[in-house]
Amino acid sequence: MVQLKTDTSIEAMRETGRVVARLLTAVREAAAVGVSLLELDEVARGVLREAGAGSPFLNYRPHFAPTPFPAVICASVNDAIVHGIPTDQRLRDGDLVSIDAGATLGGWAGDSAISFIVGRARPADTRLVETAFEALEAGIAAAVVGNRIGDIAHAIGTVCRGAGYGIPEGFGGHGIGRSMHEDPAVPNEGRPGRGMALRHGMVLAIEPMLIGGGTDVFHPDRDGWTLRTSDGSRAAHAEHTVAITHDGPRVLTAL
């Protein structure tokens, strides 16, 4: 069931979104050659503590997971698409890093993700990351009252496919509110004019995931969480929490 949010609730979610934005900014600034993924997780925990916020990621255990998630960020490097568990792995020059993070504050959740390159960037990686954000912007632009879920999915898929990238099947965005994952599902590919109608008060986490090699195939890592490209190519992920309003889409996880 889709829970429509009041304007007051959307304002409260905006405060949560600001915490997520500060967290991702701090992690991005801390990411450098030689820094470990666990150290980035500690940076994120510090931002949450300072804000008096919780983490919807920590100890989260969906049906597919063998264990509760042990961190407050997902840190996915190079061929990892999403759900990477932070470890003592240290970043190397040229690594493509995707950080997915959330926060809970005042009973409301926020969720966002960024991708970036540490050190010297390969042109192919720069293009992949830029396209992920272009797909996100296209999806946000389609998130208007009167459109449908399929319009968001089509906008994202058009950008990804047009650039020659793959889209991991079965993974995409979602509703968000009191819980991190709510109805409806928001696919990253679909037909325009199809699916649930978008209404004022819906809040969605829109999140393109791109596979650089052009295939849609992926596999879970041995940890049961991390999803990796099956062809070994690199991946990128971008996400914002977005409120659908009569005045247009409102990005709640922007700085």
From TrEMBL:
Cofactor(s) essential for the protein: Co(2+); Zn(2+); Mn(2+); Fe(2+)
Reaction(s) this enzyme catalyzes, per UniProt: Release of N-terminal amino acids, preferentially methionine, from peptides and arylamides
Gene name as annotated: map
UniProt xrefs under NCBIfam families: met_pdase_I (TIGR00500)
Record keywords, A-Z: Aminopeptidase, Hydrolase, Metal-binding, Protease
Entry EC number(s): 3.4.11.18
Organism ancestry: Bacteria, Bacillati, Actinomycetota, Actinomycetes, Kitasatosporales
MF (Gene Ontology): initiator methionyl aminopeptidase activity
Domain Peptidase M24: 11-245
Name recorded for this polypeptide: Methionine aminopeptidase
